[in-house]
Structures are given as structure tokens and as C-alpha cells.
């Protein structure tokens, strides 16, 4: 029984906060051995696990290049923690969000998983995920360790339900070869409104449609939202009682995107992902896309590309971002051992998020983000530099329900089927009704 | 009505006149034979259908503790133009209607023509029968990914060959042409095979007799072939109608409902409302209204074929 001791010492050495110390003294009184672990309260110290062998099921939607990276991390984790087995199941995100609540309600839910930040409140309200306040406390994690909006987004009704793993913002990807064709400096991508517009004009002169405006949510709606925040707007009122996207900044943002088409900087009727393919084929110079594109572009040998923060078109910098967060699922009967092991796992993976960043993400943890090793990941670091310009939806259940309605409005406008103002106003009226319906449903 | 006269005895009543004797052998025998299916039907169709009615009377989210009873509100909302669901529901019904209106006639007529050709004797007939049926064995995902790539407005080979940027998967009316066209290509083989089986069931003597009476190609088709495949036709029309009304995968994968919500079909919207937004009561109510409409159309369809049979 030397392992637990070492772990405890290491724990002490780390000088964890009061929560950790309390747990330690509780364990000390228990007489040691595996039994101590078994009877440990749910607030067991999350850096070590000394109980009997447990196996955790971990579900997520990492179907892309991120899946193998996570698998590798898990293999390393199992190597370092012989008494914790982790089995990972990967589903398409869409299926995942339908399957998990059903599995949890049937008592067959996984032990832990990943959720996008805007799904956390919904699943907390529906009793799918468990509060993790004690985990944050015993690890002394605070807002300062992450970035305030990312950290705050995991809180619902004053309880924390999620621990951030990463953020994945939009960035401006650019094709250097195409830029050279229009006599633009490929090492100095445009970063202001004037630079951007004159670059597009130069590209047009060279016969290139520089920025393909996609009418689809990926990433048309994300571009719209980024621009809207740049123009000083926001998606929702702070209390999430109503949407704000149909106000002046929203109209300005959507008009800017529609004008790309009208001024011939973008073809009409761009198909899903055609904008990203056009960047790879050398038919477009710029593509505002997610950080997850890095590895895809790296795999194309002859492509000369770079990535920069989104240019500042409006009054301030802003970029859309998503965030993957760890959650722990509710079980029919609580197993304190599994809970303790799950916390060890979350903490460990979170500390390894530099590895995770290589898969095309920005680590949520500040220490790692500010470290030299992350800065050496040139592309990730360029997108990561926007960390203070990101925005997230208010933490309200059902907050993603109005999403498809906004997507349709952006779609109609960029396809030139409706004027931006009209499309947004119609969508906002519907979205407000959805918010109202949700308030009634979730009893807010 | 040569065909009709000759056909009647072939379909003569095959039930034995002494039916009552059979019954005496074991009153419950037929029910015992039916029991396994009945059990499955009751468990997986009957019970959920009744439970669904119960759900449709509530604001139902299976994970929330409170499931308030709302009476018929979920139904009245569908007919109240001020409600949130009214426009979305009926525009999705309209999308389903448009798709059905264009796809059913094509899926009834084109496979029939193909079956007529494939029923003739020519070298390579088996090969062509296989070729026309082949797409049907593919799953909807494969079909849609394949055509999604071919029809990509900006980077697809179809527009490259045509030399014009037609928005096949992004804008009206092209999205409907793509959706109907792909569905036709994908499923015509199935209907063609059903027709082919029907055609092979028509006795050769009928055609000989018709020719002896001086009937030309067209008259043979009208008076021998068409009456001969009427039961098959009823099956094809009914099943195609229901399949088209239940269209989901093609829209979901090819256009994702775009432009706007123009190609979001009823099933797509109902699934979204129930499984993504967790408004299962409202979603169940929509399902029942949708089912009711389908039952009406099917009844109309059966009635249409029956009156034809009587004439």
C-alpha cells in the first residue's frame, strides 16, 4: 500500500487548498488501504485515486482528427493510473446529444463525457449532468486559471456543471499563393476593415473572388455572429429574456456579408463547405473558419497557407468560439469510487491539454495557453491570441433552440432571397417566442 | 374488356365452401397463428401509439419532473396562426406535399416504362435489370453523399460539365429538382421490379387473343397490360405515396432544409421538435395530425382504385 501514500504526499507537496486538506485528514482517520477509498466522500481529492479498480465509460463526439488524439491521451492516462480503466465511445455530436439523455434516464448513462458549452445549462436543468463545484474547489480552479467567459459559461444557477477543456474560435485562414497573385503581401494578412476591403478589391481585379460568403451555419452563422459582436451587438440580452441579433449591429453584420456577394467578392449560392474547399483549391484567398481546420490544411502538401485572428471590421475585435467542457453524468446509484476516478481523469486530461491543442484546439487552461510550448504551435497560437475577444451565450437552458431560426435567416439573406433586416426581424420574433416558451418549460 | 373477362375466373374465390368445418377443428387456431405478430404489433406499434396520444396532451419532456397537462393545446396550436409552431409546421407539411406531388407520379410512371422495356427479350436483359435495381441497395447516406459531391454548385463535376453555376443544392427551384431526381434514381429500381413481377404474371394468351382481335401495341397496353397489373399498381402507388410523405434522409443530408426552411419536411421538423428541442407533446400532436392526413390520402387512393375496378 505504498502507492496511496506517495500520492498523498504528492498531494500535500502540491499545496492544494483547504478542500484538499480536509479530505486528506478524513482519509487519514479512515485507517488507509482500499477501504478508505471506498468510504471516501464524494469530495475525494481529485488528483489521486486509491480505491479499488474501476472502469469509466467516457462518451464524446470526437469523430474527426480529434478522436485519435484523445485516444492517445487516454492510453497514457491508463498507463499512469493502473487502477482506472477508461473506455471511450465516440458518436456523431448530433446523435450523442440525443443518446446521452436517453441513456441517463434509462440508468445506462456513461460516467463522464464532453459537452459544448452552450449545451451545459440545458442538460443541467434536465438533470443529465451533475454539479462539479467540489471538483473545482478541491483543485482550486478559478476563473483566473481559464478565461472569464469560458469559465463562467459552465455555471448554471450558481453551480458549476462543467470544467473547460478547450476553446475553438474562428480564425482567418488565408491562401498565400492566391494572395501573391493579387500582389498582396502573404506575410501581412489584412487585419483592419480598410486593409480587408482593399485586399478584396485587389483580388477581384486579379479575377479572384476573395471571401466566399457561405449561407450555411458552418461557418456562415459564426461569421455573422463574430461581425455582429464587432459592431457592438450581441445575440441575447444579458438575462436571455430576448434576442438582440435583429438590432442595428446585427443588420450591419449581415449586410456586410451579403455585400460580399453583391460586390462580386463572393460567388452566389455557395454550397456547404465549398468556401473551405475554394481556399484549398486556390479559388478563394480568405476563409473564416474554425481552428479545427488546421490539421486538414496541414495534410495538403503543396498548399501555402496561414492563419490570423479575424480582421477587425467593426468597432472592436470579436470572434465566435465554441468550447468543449467535461461533464459527469447522473447515475441511478452514485458510486463514489467512480466519481473520484472521474475527477482524477478530468484533472489529468485538462493538464495535458497541450497535447490536445495539437489536434487543433486552444487549451482552456491559462498556464498552458501562456506557455512557450503552446506558443510554438504557430497556427493554434495565432487563433488563441483572440482569447479575450470571444463571446459565449448566456448559461440558460434551451439557449441553443433559437439557433436554427437564425441559421435560416442568415441563409436566406446570403442567398439574396430576403433583405438582411427583414430576415433578422422575422427570425427574432420567432426566437423571442422560443425563449419565452423555454422560460415556462424550465421554470426560470 | 377481354382481359377483365378472362381474369375473373383466375382470381376465383379459393376459400372452401365448408369454412365452418375448419373452424370447428380449433376455435383459437387462427388466433394462435396470429398471436406472435399481434404481440409484436401491440408492444411496438399499438402501445406506443396510444402512449403517444397521452403524451400529446401534455407539455412533455421525459427528463423534466413536471409534465403539465395541457389538454388539446398542442393540437389547437397547430391551427392557430399566432402560435410558434403554426408556420413552421405547415411550411414543413407544404415541403412534404411538394416533394410527394412531384416524386409520386414520376416514381409510378418511369419505373413502369422501364419495366415494360425490361420485360422484352433482348441480349443483356439481366444485366440491365441489375443496373436499374442497383442504386436501391445503397443506403440513403451513401446516395446523398455521392450526389452531394456530384451536384456541388461550386466544385461539382455536374456543373463543370454543364459549364454553368446551377445551385443544385442551395437554391430554389433547383433543390426540388435535385431531391426528386435523386429519389427517382435511387428508388425506381424497386418499383420497376414490382411492376416486372406483375407483368410476368399476365398470361401470354391474353396478348395473343388481343392481337387476334386486331389490337395494336397501344390497345394491348390499355386493355391487357394495365388491367393486368392493377393490384400491383395499387400497391406501388400506396407504398410510394407513403414513402415520399415520410421523406427525411434526402433533405436532411443534401440540403439540411435550406434554403431557409424550404426543404425541411414534416418528419424532419417533427423529429427536431421532439428529439432536439425536447417538446415531445407538441411533436406527438404533429405526428397524429400528419398521420391523419396520410390516412385520408390513402383512403382516397383506395377508393379511387376500387371505383375503377367496379366500372
Oligomeric state of the chains?
heterodimer
What's the overall average pLDDT of chain B, rounded?
A: 89
Q: How large, in whole angstroms, is the Cα Rg of chain A? A: 23 Å
CATH superfamily of chain B: MetI-like
- The helix/strand class of chain A is alpha/beta
> What proportion strand of chain A?
5-15%
Low-confidence runs of at least 5 consecutive residues of chain A: 1-44
| CATH class category name of the largest domain in chain A | Alpha Beta
Tell me the helix content of chain B. over 70%
The biggest beta sheet of chain B reads: none
Strand content of chain B: under 5%
Q: Count of DSSP E strands of chain A?
A: 11
Describe the fold and architecture.
The complex is a heterodimer of chains A (444) and B (311). With 444 residues, chain A is α/β, with parallel strands linked by helices. Chain A folds into three domains: 1-35, no CATH class; 50-166 and 322-390, D-Maltodextrin-Binding Protein, domain 2 (3-Layer(aba) Sandwich); 169-320 and 393-442, 3-Layer(aba) Sandwich (D-Maltodextrin-Binding Protein, domain 2). In chain A, 48% of the residues lie in helices and 13% in strands. Chain A contains 21 helices and eleven strands. In chain A, helix 20 packs antiparallel against helix 21. The longest helix of chain A has 23 residues, at 420-442. Chain A is globular. Chain B is mostly helical and 311 residues long. Chain B has one domain (85-310): MetI-like fold (Orthogonal Bundle). Chain B has helices at 2-10, 19-24, 29-55, 73-76, 84-118, 125-133, 140-150, 157-162, 174-200, 204-212, 217-228, 230-245, 249-255, 266-276, 280-310. Chain B starts with a helix and ends with a helix. The A-B interface holds A 97-98, 101, 104-105, 125-128, 212, 215-216, 267-272, 274, 277-278, 281, 283, 398, 401, 404, 408-409, 411-412, 415, 417-418, 430, 433-434, 437, 441-443 and B 59, 61-64, 66, 84, 152-156, 165, 167, 169-171, 256-261, 272, 275-279.
Amino acid at each position: 500500500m505504498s502507492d496511496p501514500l506517495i500520492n498523498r504526499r504528492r498531494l500535500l507537496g502540491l499545496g492544494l487548498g483547504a478542500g484538499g486538506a480536509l479530505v486528506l485528514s478524513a482519509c487519514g482517520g479512515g485507517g488507509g488501504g482500499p477501504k478508505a477509498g471506498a468510504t471516501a466522500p464524494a469530495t475525494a481529492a481529485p488528483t489521486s485515486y486509491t480505491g479499488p479498480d474501476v472502469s469509466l465509460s467516457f462518451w464524446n463526439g470526437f469523430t474527426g482528427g480529434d478522436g485519435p488524439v484523445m485516444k492517445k491521451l487516454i492510453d497514457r492516462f491508463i498507463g499512469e493510473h493502473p487502477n482506472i480503466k477508461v473506455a471511450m465511445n465516440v458518436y456523431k455530436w448530433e446523435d450523442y446529444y440525443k443518446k446521452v439523455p436517453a441513456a441517463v434516464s434509462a440508468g445506462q448513462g456513461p460516467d463522464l463525457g464532453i459537452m459544448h458549452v452552450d449545451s451545459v445549462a440545458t442538460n443541467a436543468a434536465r438533470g443529465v449532468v451533475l454539479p462539479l463545484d467540489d471538483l473545482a474547489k478541491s483543485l482550486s480552479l478559478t476563473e483566473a486559471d481559464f478565461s472569464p467567459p469560458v469559465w463562467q459559461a459552465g455555471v448554471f444557477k450558481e453551480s458549476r456543471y462543467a470544467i473547460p477543456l478547450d476553446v475553438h474560435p474562428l480564425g482567418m485562414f488565408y491562401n498565400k499563393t492566391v494572395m501573391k497573385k493579387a500582389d498582396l503581401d502573404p506575410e501581412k494578412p489584412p487585419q483592419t476593415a480598410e486593409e480587408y476591403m482593399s485586399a478584396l478589391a485587389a483580388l477581384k481585379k486579379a479575377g479572384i473572388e476573395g471571401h466566399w460568403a457561405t449561407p450555411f451555419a458552418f461557418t456562415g452563422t459564426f461569421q455573422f455572429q463574430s461581425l455582429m459582436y464587432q459592431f457592438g451587438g450581441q445575440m441575447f440580452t444579458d438575462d436571455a429574456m430576448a434576442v438582440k441579433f435583429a438590432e442595428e449591429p446585427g443588420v450591419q453584420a449581415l449586410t456586410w456579408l451579403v455585400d460580399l456577394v453583391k460586390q462580386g467578392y463572393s460567388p452566389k449560392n455557395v454550397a456547404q463547405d465549398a468556401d473551405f474547399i475554394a481556399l484549398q483549391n486556390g479559388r478563394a484567398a480568405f476563409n473564416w473558419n474554425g481552428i479545427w481546420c488546421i490539421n486538414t490544411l496541414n495534410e495538403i502538401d503543396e498548399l501555402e497557407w496561414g492563419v490570423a485572428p479575424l480582421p477587425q471590421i467593426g468597432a472592436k475585435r470579436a470572434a465566435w468560439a465554441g468550447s468543449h467542457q467535461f461533464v459527469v453524468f447522473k447515475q441511478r446509484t452514485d458510486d463514489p469510487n467512480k466519481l473520484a476516478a472521474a475527477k482524477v481523469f478530468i484533472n489529468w486530461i485538462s493538464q495535458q491539454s497541450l497535447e490536445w491543442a495539437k489536434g487543433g484546439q486552444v487549451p482552456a487552461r491559462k498556464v498552458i495557453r501562456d506557455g512557450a510550448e503552446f506558443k510554438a504551435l504557430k497556427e493554434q497560437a495565432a487563433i488563441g491570441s483572440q482569447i479575450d475577444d470571444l463571446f459565449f451565450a448566456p448559461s440558460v437552458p434551451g439557449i441553443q433552440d433559437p439557433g436554427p431560426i437564425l441559421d435560416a435567416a442568415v441563409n436566406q439573406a446570403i442567398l439574396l432571397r430576403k433583405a438582411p433586416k427583414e430576415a433578422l426581424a422575422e427570425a427574432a420574433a420567432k426566437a423571442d417566442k422560443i425563449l419565452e416558451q423555454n422560460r415556462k418549460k424550465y421554470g426560470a | 374488356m377481354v382481359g377483365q373477362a378472362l381474369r375473373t375466373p383466375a382470381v376465383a374465390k379459393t376459400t372452401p365452401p365448408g369454412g365452418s368445418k375448419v373452424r370447428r377443428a380449433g376455435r383459437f387456431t387462427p388466433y394462435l397463428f396470429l398471436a406472435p405478430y399481434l404481440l409484436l404489433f401491440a408492444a411496438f406499434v399499438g402501445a406506443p401509439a396510444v402512449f403517444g396520444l397521452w403524451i400529446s396532451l401534455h407539455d412533455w419532456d421525459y427528463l423534466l419532473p413536471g409534465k403539465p397537462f395541457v389538454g388539446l393545446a398542442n393540437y389547437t396550436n397547430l391551427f392557430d396562426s399566432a402560435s410558434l409552431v403554426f408556420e413552421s409546421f405547415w411550411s414543413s407539411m407544404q415541403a412534404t406535399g411538394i416533394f410527394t406531388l412531384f416524386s409520386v407520379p414520376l416514381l409510378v410512371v418511369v419505373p413502369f416504362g422501364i419495366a415494360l422495356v425490361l420485360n422484352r427479350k433482348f441480349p443483356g436483359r439481366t444485366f440491365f435489370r441489375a443496373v436499374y435495381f442497383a442504386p436501391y441497395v445503397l443506403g440513403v447516406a451513401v446516395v446523398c453523399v455521392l450526389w452531394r459531391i456530384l451536384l456541388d454548385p461550386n466544385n461539382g463535376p455536374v456543373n463543370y460539365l454543364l459549364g454553368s453555376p446551377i445551385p443544385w443544392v442551395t437554391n430554389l427551384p433547383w433543390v426540388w429538382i435535385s431531391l426528386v431526381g435523386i429519389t427517382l434514381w435511387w428508388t425506381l429500381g424497386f418499383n420497376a421490379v414490382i411492376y416486372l413481377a406483375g407483368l410476368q404474371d399476365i398470361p401470354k394468351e391474353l396478348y395473343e387473343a388481343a392481337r387476334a382481335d386486331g389490337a395494336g401495341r397501344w390497345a394491348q397496353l390499355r386493355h391487357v397490360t394495365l388491367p393486368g397489373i392493377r393490384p400491383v399498381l395499387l400497391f406501388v402507388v400506396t407504398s410510394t405515396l407513403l414513402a415520399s410523405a415520410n421523406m427525411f434522409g434526402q433533405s436532411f443530408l443534401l440540403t439540411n432544409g435550406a434554403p431557409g426552411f424550404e426543404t425541411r419536411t414534416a418528419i424532419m421538423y417533427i423529429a427536431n421538435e421532439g428529439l432536439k428541442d425536447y417538446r415531445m407533446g407538441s411533436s406527438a400532436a404533429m405526428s397524429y395530425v400528419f398521420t391523419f392526413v396520410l390516412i385520408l390520402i390513402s383512403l382516397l387512393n383506395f377508393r379511387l382504385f376500387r371505383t375503377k375496378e367496379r366500372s
